[in-house]
Structures are given as structure tokens and as C-alpha cells.
């Protein structure tokens, strides 16, 4: 990947970025209680006695949450620690009833791994970069304060209190807004393929803390800031760019960067200071005395690995091996629902290259126009297979196939039914086509003479007139062959 630098008043600067992504674990309950985690529930309706920190209530780890975190680690080829431990991170805040958060500082569940990213969909391998992942640990989320419900008081909603999070910490290997965006998109895709997080950033089930520092090319790392709870790929990229520019201005004006926590204001497209950055000792971490260490046996690990689906990179490689272009393979595998739909289409026996071309252009174009995603597509994989088969066997030309597809979208009918009902079948009847060609040539005798006199470009005119006269139903290949003979 090409180097990304920012030009300051005194020269060039490099950007160094690390992301800490908090991903809500897909599970049947919270991390240490049986309370539900449904999004959008009425405030304080999904709170157990454990979540509310009632005296005497003890946490019990949710096996499914641990399983999903382990599967995520395996998906990025990370070290799975068969022995890990929970720690208490002590701080007081109104939406944290216990007065501490149960997390994992010293002995996380998942160790080092890596994620491969690309900045060029058309040639993913040529622009690839491997981003290190330092760790994945599991922890409980806090509740939510609401300051706009009363003129003088703040309310607290504890529905999120105790929700299981995976904190996925990258190494400072990202060096531009584009790389940060590509990493977050790729991580989100992996989580959604694995099924360990739904990746819905708008609902807060995936958010990123963005660590940014700047330095002169080749110099040691600078002081970093952390911008908290950024909830879209676009905003993460904006934070990297704006925070880097801010830091450069401060340094070039003779100031120093303070290690601190900041917030991003998307309306102003700027970051602002929230609080000074705490160190681990400020939280007085110590092992949680209510929880035994997690010890994973081989049978559990084997089950986790066996449950993993085909992941994005492997699926893309399989599509390319079938002849699909790298660009189309990248588009088809970017979202798990699209890949599953395409796999269903391939299972019908559709030819991979033709199917990929049609899905990425015709189907995705129509869905975008209709404001739908693949999950609400009016066309099923079986319906698409029927349409593609009619093109492959010569029943439909490309232009007729477009007409049939539009009718299918409007009516929900199958391709075969549309062709029969509306008489849209392509004709390869040479006798019929020859008659039309003779009429076209007779009506354009001057252009026939011009063509025979050397104006070869007029050939396209005769093709167009013939196809128009036959309502687009003539086989273009047959038309071309017969015209060449007729025109001499």
C-alpha cells in the first residue's frame, strides 16, 4: 500500500492508528446473568438482580459468550488461551451499579492474531496488508445515562448493563484513514460470517475507540489520543484524519499532545477533549474473587473450530478458482448475506462467471434502485437460475433478459412464465431473419452502397435496424452472420 502522509507547515507527518473495537456478542443472555439483550426494549426491563448489583448476587459465566469469543479468535488465526482470568476494573459511574467492571486485563481469552485487508477491490492481492490483532478479551458493558428525559435530573437505563462484549484490540499497524476503514469493514465481515456479532453499528452492537498519534517519518511513536465510541466506518476514517491534523497543528505551534480521551462530533467533524487518559493503575485492577479462572478443554476447542463457516478470504479464493474476477469475488463476499445468496445460486448449477456478472450488475443494481437488500430480494436464487438458464440456452438474448428481469421484479413471476405469456422468446429462425434483412437493405439502398464502398462502420446501423424490426427478439449472433453474407 502506498504511504499516507500529511503535509504540515514544517514538513511531512506520518499517522499511526490502532483500533479497539467493542463487539456485542451474539448470545442467548448477558455475560454473567440470564437477562435478555434485545435491542430497543423499554428501559430497565432487561435487568437481572446480578446486573443491578443486588447484595449477595454472584456472576456465572455464560458458556455461549465464551464460545463465540473463542470462535472469533479462531477466525483470525489467533492464539486461544486455554487458561484465562477475569479482573475487576474499579471505577464509579452512575450506570455501573457494581462500582467496577468485570473485564480481562492480565490474562485475556484470546491472544495475538491478524486480519488481512485490501484497499483495492479490483485487485485485492496487490494492495494487501496484514494488520496485527493484539488480543480479544470479554467484558461486561455498562448501562446508559439519559440526560434529555427531565429538566433537572438524569435517568439511567440498565438494559445494557452486563451485556457481553468482545474487545478486539489491534496493533498500531494502521497508517491512514483508508486502512482504518478497510480494517473495520473486514473485521465486521468476519464477525458476521462467524455469527459472533451482528455488526450493527447504528444500534451500538459494534463501536470503535480510535487511537491516533503522529510522527515524523521514521521517528519513534508519538503521544496518542483515544477517541471513544465511534459508531460508523465513515466516522472512524474522519476521526483519523481530523485528529491527526489537529495534533500536527498543536505540535507545529510549539505545544505538546496530551494523552487523553476525546469524543467525536460528526456535526462539526472535529474531536474534543473528554478527560485525561487513565493508566491501568488508576483502575486498581485485581483478579475477580467471585469468578474462577476459565479453563478450556480440547473437546470444547474442537467443537468451536468445527462450527466455523467458510470465511470471507477462503470464499473469495474459491470463487476466483471458479473463474470469477477478483473484483466480483470481493463484492460478493463483502457481506455474508450476499455470499450465502450467491452460494445458493451456484448450488442450482448456474455457471459461476455468468452468475457473478449478473448478480453484481443486474441484481445489485435493481436492489439498490428499490432500496432493498439481498434478504428482501423479490428474486430468489432459483428464480435467478431459471433466468440465467434461458440466456445460456439461447432462449433469451441479453436485452430480452433485461426485459424479463424487470417484469419478474414487478410481478413476482418466474422467468419461463414471463417468456411464454409475453412472447419474449429469442428467435434463431434464419429464414425469418433473412426476410427482415432483405427489407432493411431494400429500404436503405444508399447505405448498402456506402457500406460496399468501404464505410464499414455502417454495419452497426444494419444490425440495429434488423433488431429493431424484430422487436429485439432476433439472436444477435445469427443476425451478424446473416448480415455479413447479405452485405457481401
What Rg is obtained from the alpha carbons, in whole angstroms?
30 Å
Q: Which overall shape is indicated by the principal axes computed on the Cα atoms?
A: elongated
Question: Which percent band covers the strand fraction?
Answer: 15-25%
Instruction: Point out poorly predicted stretches.
Output: none
The CA-CA distance between the termini, in Å, is 54 Å
Instruction: Write down how many β-strands occur, each being a DSSP E stretch of 2 or more residues.
Output: 16
Number of helices: 15
Residue-averaged pLDDT: 92
EC number: 6.3.5.-
Subunit structure: Heterotrimer of A, B and C subunits.
Domain Asn/Gln amidotransferase: 340-487
Catalytic activity: L-aspartyl-tRNA(Asn) + L-glutamine + ATP + H2O = L-asparaginyl-tRNA(Asn) + L-glutamate + ADP + phosphate + 2 H(+); L-glutamyl-tRNA(Gln) + L-glutamine + ATP + H2O = L-glutaminyl-tRNA(Gln) + L-glutamate + ADP + phosphate + H(+)
Report on the structure:
- This protein is of the alpha+beta class and 488 residues long.
- Helices cover 39% and strands 19% of the residues.
- The chain has 15 helices and 16 strands.
- It has helices spanning 63-75, 177-194, 233-252, 298-306, 312-321, 326-333, 336-347, 352-370, 381-392, 398-411, 415-422, 430-443, 445-452, 459-469, 476-487, and strands at residues 5-8, 11-24, 83-84, 87-90, 100-103, 113-118, 128-140, 144-146, 155-157, 164-170, 206-215, 225-230, 260-265, 270-276, 286-287, 294-295.
- The strands form four sheets. Strands 1, 2, 6, 7, 10, 11, 12, 13 and 14 form a nine-stranded mixed beta sheet that branches. A three-stranded antiparallel beta sheet has the order 5-4-15, with no helix packed on it.
- A hairpin with an 8-residue loop joins strand 8 (144-146) and strand 9 (155-157).
- Helix 7 (336-347) packs across helix 9, helix 9 runs antiparallel to helix 10 and helix 14 (459-469) packs across helix 15 (476-487).
- The longest helix has 20 residues, at 233-252.
- The protein is elongated.
- Keywords: ATP-binding, Ligase, Nucleotide-binding, Protein biosynthesis.
- Residues 340-487 form the Asn/Gln amidotransferase domain.
- It catalyses: L-aspartyl-tRNA(Asn) + L-glutamine + ATP + H2O = L-asparaginyl-tRNA(Asn) + L-glutamate + ADP + phosphate + 2 H(+); L-glutamyl-tRNA(Gln) + L-glutamine + ATP + H2O = L-glutaminyl-tRNA(Gln) + L-glutamate + ADP + phosphate + H(+).
